Amino acid sequence: MTSTTETNVPLEGPTPDDGLRAAEQSGPMLAADGTPLKRSLARALRREKLRALMLIAPLLLFVLITFIAPIGDMLLRSVRNDIVADTLPETVEQLGMWDSAQQELPDDATWTALYIDLVLAEEQKLHTRLGSRLNYELTGASSLFRKTGRAVGRFDTDVYTDQFVALDDSWENAATWVNMFDDSDIAEALPLTARTWERWVDYLESEDDIPAEEDVEDFLFTALYADLTREGADVSGLSPRLEQAAAAVSGFETVDLREQFEDADDDWLDPEIMRTIQTYSPRYTSGYFLNAVDAQLTADGVSMRPENQQIYGILFKRTIFMSLTITLSCIILGYPVAWILANLPTRSANLLMILVLLPFWTSLLVRTSAWKVMLQQQGVINDTLVWLGLVADDARLVMINNQFGTIVAMTHILLPFMILPMYSVMQTIPPSYLRAAKSLGATNWTAFWRVYFPQSVPGIGAGSILVFILSIGYYITPEIVGGTTGTFISNRIAYHISSSLNWGLAAALGTILLAVVLILYWAYDKIVGIDNVKLG
Amino acid sequence: MTASDIVITATEKKPVSFYASVAAAAGAFAGIFVGAAQGSTLLGLICGAILMAIVAYVAVEILGRRQEKPLRWGLVILFAIVGFLFGGTPGGVIGALFGWFFGWFVYWLGFNRYRAHLVPYLTPGQVLWHYAFRVICGAIFVFLITPILVVMPLSFNAENFFTFTPEMLRFDPEGYSLRHYRDFLTNTEWTNAVKNSLMIAPVATLISVSLGTLAAIGLSQSHVPAKRAIMAIMISPMIVPLIISATGMYFFYSKIGLVGTYWGIVLAHAVLGIPFVIITVTATLVGFDKSLTRAAANMGADPVTTFFRVQMPLILPGVISGGLFAFITSFDEVVVVLFVGSAELQTLPWQMFTGLREQISPTILAAATVLVAISIALLTVVELLRRRSERLRGMSPG
Known about the structure:
The structure holds two protein chains of two kinds.
Chain A: H1 3-6, H2 16-24, H3 37-77, H4 82-87, H5 89-95, H6 108-123, H7 127-135, H8 141-152, H9 158-167, H10 174-182, H11 184-189, H12 191-206, H13 218-229, H14 240-248, H15 257-264, H16 271-279, H17 287-292, E1 295-298, E2 301-304, H18 312-343, H19 346-361, H20 364-375, H21 380-388, H22 403-426, H23 431-439, H24 444-472, H25 476-481, H26 489-498, H27 503-527
Antiparallel strand pairs in A: 1-2
Helix pairs in contact in A: 3-27, 5-6, 6-8, 6-13, 7-8, 9-13, 12-13, 18-19, 18-22, 18-24, 19-22, 20-22, 22-24, 23-24, 24-27, 26-27
Chain B: H1 16-38, H2 41-63, H3 68-110, H4 124-154, H5 166-169, H6 179-186, H7 188-220, H8 227-239, H9 242-255, H10 262-286, H11 290-298, H12 303-332, H13 335-340, H14 348-358, H15 363-395
């Protein structure tokens, strides 16, 4: 390495003899250049480590960014629940003070907050998303929010607008509002109005509108009214216009916002919806995970879902059951094949190996389409059976779009993953052991069961874990040949991502699946060692 | 003389009661199917048993070993004609196969040929098990390979069916056509899909091979801190279920604007291919003699020269087969593409997947046949590389 150039000047440099001589003089053993050998070795070691890490670093970074980060993002998404707090910030704050155990509805401040939040959400078209989010927890929330979203713009809150404008024309002018909230004292005195105004301005600016040129909407006046009538509201000395308004508000005609919501949809009278909003207001929730195990988070704590809505338990059980069945059939089919491959002469074994490797190398979709062709009602197997007269033409076997189809097709697809590890283990078992056992008087079965089989167990273990890991997360094959009864948990995840758009639930299901796989991966690493994985 | 020609146990004529009854049993079994196809299972069973017992007797007792060839040919032709009368051309072909099999079978039984390659001290039960085991293994091999073989003839179907038409079974040229291949090669949906796949896979392979090889070399050094953890992270794309990878990538890539872009898919496929490169290259490096790099350094080569002139040629087979694995991973990958891709970036597997879900046309089978041909080619290359690598390793000490 670097020493090659240094030795070009041998006369001045240190020689091995120097080290020896120094060592003889007692003290620590020295390297050729006079430094203690220990330190010199440590330095060389450090340099070697550094070089190895430099070689690994680019890939490690690449994998971390393109793979581990996405997985981490998914894990985070399974507990993230920003939408309620982001869409209904005022309501969430008000509901924080509400005791949900009581059977009565929240107070007026909450309804005002909800009104303001919903108007803003409706402007930004966010209320439907919120509705679908809450619908996962409370059926009917989606339509409730959609219906209310349509109505919320027509609430009778223009009463406040008219009364404020009657006091002073300049309230109608957006520029007045812009100027008013430039003053931090006013913003402090009217917290709700200030926050609402800020959200409104943010929204307008995101739409490239200028706040000073827009109409002043009813909900701003509602917020102003709420602020001015709030206990301890004090605007004295801030602005004459505000003082005038503060003096007048007590005589204002009011609007009962709860009634307005009730007119929009009766469901608001049921405290359940408010309870649900309250339960799901934190930014992190265990709700998705509870959903994924057929439970739900209610105001009274965790409870199981009704019997007829429990689908994930069944789905997880089915996934495990089918993966086990597939693993078992792979063992049963793979063991004889691996045995014969390991015990035939090399030439014929290599030829037969092609029959194992060709499916292994063939595109997954080709194999899946082949099974679709084979198994369907007008397919090759049914045609053959009908032609042989074993099955009547009008009673063709149903072998696809059910569990049978998935198990058969996936056993075929995963069989090479079982055969290859078994084969590599069996190759190392000397055939003389079996012969020795037999010559000592063992029957064929005893010789196999007591001598050969225990030695082949590591191969079975390696193959089984591999097949089980692969099958538990399979998506394509169950999707195509599984129908409704033969699908796995992964199909449900895909459904939630592309169709129902319940991404949080998809992430939670994915996290559970990932945890199972990682435990198995860890076991595999302990038993087989990941560096011992062989391909072909 | 190959191993299979060696005769361990002498062949002799077996008693008539043995071979005639076994042949009759086999004939009865075959007769069940023929009978069922013609309407009467029982009649088929009895006829098959009687017929095969007679054939066995005639073959072994009367004609003997010297007349073996003519008898076997005669049987092939006779069965082919009978089969043709019953079931047309397909029946004829199956009949000929039956005739060939039974011709071989009666001689194999009658002259004890089944013991020729076995050690003499085996009991009859052990012999029976020996062959039964082989039949079982044969059946499993058939299970492994049949689905792939069935796809090929079906892709030449002249009709828009996923199954054999009567014309195809009659070997009528009318029943076969190249229309699905024409569709595959001219339909823009399919050609675009192939083009996209060919644009994505090589780039992804290049990324995973270059990064993966470097990392594998780093990992093979003796003192790497946290080696197991690093290895576990790098292998994880192969272990984590694709649906989870796809979900995570969809969420994360949409945040950084990579969803629906060419580079999004390329990066995703590159990371999925990395475990394969790592595994194959590390396996090759296990047999790599480190003194070779030291010798090169000793003779004045800098690390880069050493890598390209000494190490690379020796581990090249492993690198290439790792690259092929990565290529096939990308070329065959559909889940991630479904999530991260977009309509303009449909790859061949995507096209096949949607086609299978909606079952549009047997063009899928033409595509499948092309893919099988490609995988046979790749398998051959990998096998040759493996042999070369073993030869190279055999040359170097250690």
